[in-house]
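Q: Could you fold this chain for me?
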Amino acid sequence: MEQNRRCRFLLQSVSAAELPGIDEWHSQMLESKEMRGHLRWMQQKYRLGQDMCLIGGFGPLRRWLAMRFCEANKLELEYVALTRDTTDCDLKQRREIDEQGAVVWQDLPAVRAAIFGRVLILEGLEKAERNVLPVLNNLLENREMSLDDGRFLMDAARYDKLGSSPGKHIIRVHPGFRVIALTVPVPPFPGNPIDPPLRSRFQGRVISPLDPPALRTVMNRAMASISRRAPPSTHTAHLLAVAGAIKELTQDPEIGLQVPQLTESSLLAAARTACLFPKIAPSECLDRVYPWEGVVFVPETVETVKAILDAIASSQGNSTSQPYQLTSLSLTPDHSRMLRPTWQPTSGIEAALMCCGSGSRREPSSFLAGPLALT
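A: Sure. Below is the predicted structure, expressed as structure tokens.
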């Protein structure tokens, strides 16, 4: 009973918007009922001392969920993105030159997490090659790992049985060490299926996409948090209709079209653009976050997707778009690196926030044109 009260307190004590890289309008997704159920399950597995594996589609939702859990429990974390080029040495140690010019071994995130009792987030488990699996399996099952500098990581229970002099080369693994793996189901997604020995070390949880009513609620709350005006209802209906159509195309085996997924974060980004620029057609908002034409190279698939998107746009009756004009830029008083641009449509002035100095660059869109005056 006490643990359940503690779990509810942890889930409500920290706002998801405090996480780095998560905007206020994206944090609304983590506050939904479905995400709170996932967080409650993760809290239970953490208290039982079990490692977790979050399974779902492409997108940052699973990573945000793991970070939200660590933030709510005030846990430090180490992050490793697995790729096809990742080897066992990339998980253990690497050689570096210190300030004195000597070559030393530097612990990598997996070793640091085991020694200091942090949460290790492994993203892209389906990309791990065969030579990496034995290292991960031994770390998960036995809490053991042999390091290149001669040290040996040992489970805390076995380390305590060695007595007062276990040896300086034997390092005790912190009992608070946990692993959260993030992966996608293979098939239908590309990658390597997880081997049964490694799969048995995790407690799995499927992170399903939000259903349309819940997603509509999240979008409305997110828009209310960043603007006084909600996006036009036709824009929201258009985005949800496109999301449903893309979901059917990717999941129906009879259709067999290979198109990228339209994630919830992309839908929120498109809805945010529609909220800040209501005169823009939803199709143009969607093209900025879902550039499917750049990754689909089969002519028949391109024609099919175009026909579906055009049919949705014509049914919603909002295919026209009005250009916006960037008229001025001014620094915000509270952020030295934040600019407040002023956009001038044909009717009224709309304002938005953008970050400058990040080094990113995007090609101009069809709805942004006009002179620029820095104030």
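A (continued): Residues 92 and 344 are 54 Å apart (CA to CA).
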